[in-house]
Amino acid sequence: MLKLTDSSLSTETTLLGNEEISKLSPTVLAMIADFFKVLSEVSRLQIVCALKSGEKNVSQIIEMTGLGQANVSKHLKLLTQAGIVTRTQEGVNVFYAIANPLVFPLCDLVCNSIATQLQQQNQHLESLKMFQQSF
Fold first, then answer.
1. pLDDT digits 0-9 by tens, 80-99
2. Is 15 helix (H, G, I), strand (E, B) or coil?
3. Most Cβ neighbours (<10 Å): which of 8, 32, 75, 116?
4. How many CB atoms lie within 10 A of CB 96?
5. Other beta carbons within 10 Å of 43
6. Are 96 and 51 in contact (CB under 8 A)?
């Protein structure tokens, strides 16, 4: 799995702010797709949200998310490989923390977009209700 923050391609990834995404190489687009794939699973998003308030060990993550130990461990491994989460061992305890703080503004953008879509759908439903009541 490729990391979106891979320094070997950092020059090309800076094009995202200055150029159209269509000018990016397939390699960089694959990195972007892999990043989104990692975040496209509900359990991984739950874990990321649990880590928003700071580093946690697996037991704390399990308690906060209600997920099983094997499930949490599997998802933490993927999040770590993707560079979204860091893993630090302190004695017998392993702590996880957010490594890529861009995750939270990205999630905020998506949440705001979804909220806007839901508001528009609600407005359409209200219009439909008013139309139905006019008969």
1. 999 999 999 999 999 999 99
2. helix
3. 75
4. 22
5. 16
6. yes
Residue with tokens 């490729």: 2
Rg (CA), the chain: 20
Q: What average pLDDT does the structure give for the chain?
A: 86
Query: 42, 107 in Cβ contact below 8 A?
Result: no
Helices (H), the chain: 10-13, 15-18, 26-38, 42-51, 58-65, 69-81, 103-133
The answer for residues whose C-beta is within 8 angstroms of residue 78's C-beta and 6 or more apart is 1, 38, 44
**3-class DSSP assignment, residue 2:** coil
H helix and E strand count, the chain: 7, 3
- Which value, to the nearest 10 degrees, does the dihedral of the CA atoms of residues 29, 32, 33, 34 take? 120
CA distance 102 to 17: 14
